[in-house]
Amino acid sequence: MNQFLTALLCTSLLCIANLLPVTAHAAAPISFEVLTERTHKPTLFTQGLLVDGDHFYESSGLYNQSLLVTYPIAEPAGTWAKISAPFTKKQAVPARYFAEGLALLGDKLYLLTWQEQTLLIYDKTTLNYQKSISYEGEGWGLTSDGKQLIRSDGSDTLYFHNADDFSVTKTLKIIDQGNAVTQLNELEFTGGFIWANIWHQDRIVKIDPTTGEAVGEMNLSAVKQKLQLTNSEQVLNGIAWDEKRQAFWITGKNWPKMFLVKLKPSQS
Ligand SMILES: [Ca+2]
C-alpha cells in the first residue's frame, strides 16, 4: 500500500471514528450483592424513598392519587400478611398535586411536586401537613445532605436549597467523563456522595457533590429482569440508605419487590 492510500485509509478511519456515537457513560461499575428482598406495594408509583430508623418513608405520584406513606422495614410472616400489611401511617396529597421526591431533614418531611412548583412540608411523626413553599421549575428527586435539600428536575442539574425558605444556594451540573448526565431522578445522599436514579434506565450513578462528576454507577438490570415487569413505566426509581443494615434499599415504580443491596467492601 502506498503512502497516499495509507494516509487516505487512516483519514477515513478517523472520520468513521468521529461519526461513532460518543460513549453515553463511562463511570466505573460498582459491584454489589443483593442481600435480601421484601414486598413492595405495587400500587405505589414510587417517586421518593428513604429510611429513618426501622421505617421506610415513601412518596407515590400521579394526579388524584398521590400519597405519602410510612411502613416498617421488618415484614410480618406469611405471604398474605406481607401483601396485605397496612401502612403505619398514610397521608393523601391533595388531588391537584403530583407528588415527587421526598427528603427528611430534622423532624420534617419535604415533598416535591412535579409541575406545581410547590414544596409540601409534613411532620415526620404524624405525617400531618405543616406548610408549603413555592419554587421555580420541576420537581423530580429530593434528598438531604443533613444541612440542605438537594433537588433534581430531570435535567443534568442538581439544585441545592436552603431548607428554611427553599431558596437555591447552588447548582451543580452532573458530568460523566465530560458528558452531561441527564434525566436525574430519585436521589439519596450518604457517605459524602449523592446517588441518583436515571429515569428510564437501570442504573444509579454515584456523584461527587463538589465536582458534579459521576464517579461510579450501579447497574440494576439483572435485578429488574427478575421481576418480569410488563409496563415500560415501571422504571427503577427508589434508593434509600439503611444505616442499620449499611446497605441500600432499591425499588421502582409499581414494583412488587424491594431489594437490599450491599456494595462490595472496596466501593462502599
Ligand atoms: Ca431516596
| CATH superfamily grouping | YVTN repeat-like/Quinoprotein amine dehydrogenase
What Rg do the Cα atoms give? 21 Å
What's the CATH C level?
A: Mainly Beta
Count of DSSP E strands?
Answer: 22
The helix content, as a percent range, equals: 10-25%
What would CATH call the architecture? 7 Propeller
Return the average pLDDT rounded to an integer: 92
Return the string of H and E elements: HEEEEHEEEEEEEEEEEEEEEHEEE
* CATH level 3 topology: Methylamine Dehydrogenase, Chain H
Number of helices: 3
Largest sheet, in brief, is: 4 strands, antiparallel
Number of domains: 1
Task: Output the structural class.
Answer: mainly beta
| Spatial ordering of strands, largest sheet | 1-22-21-20
| Terminal Cα span | 53 Å
Ranges where pLDDT stays below 50 over 5 or more residues in a row are 1-23
Please tell me what the overall shape is. Answer: globular
Ligand species: calcium ion
Report the sheet-strand fraction.
Answer: over 45%
Would you spell out the secondary-structure blueprint of this structure?
Blueprint: H1 3-19, E1 32-39, E2 46-52, E3 55-60, E4 67-72, H2 79-84, E5 89-92, E6 99-105, E7 108-113, E8 118-123, E9 129-134, E10 142-144, E11 149-152, E12 157-161, E13 168-173, E14 175-176, E15 179-180, E16 184-190, E17 193-198, E18 203-207, E19 214-219, H3 221-225, E20 236-242, E21 247-252, E22 257-263
Antiparallel strand pairs: 1-22, 2-3, 3-4, 4-5, 6-7, 7-8, 8-9, 10-11, 11-12, 12-13, 14-15, 16-17, 17-18, 18-19, 20-21, 21-22
Bound molecules: calcium ion.
Calcium ion binds at residues 49-50, 143, 186-188, 239-240.
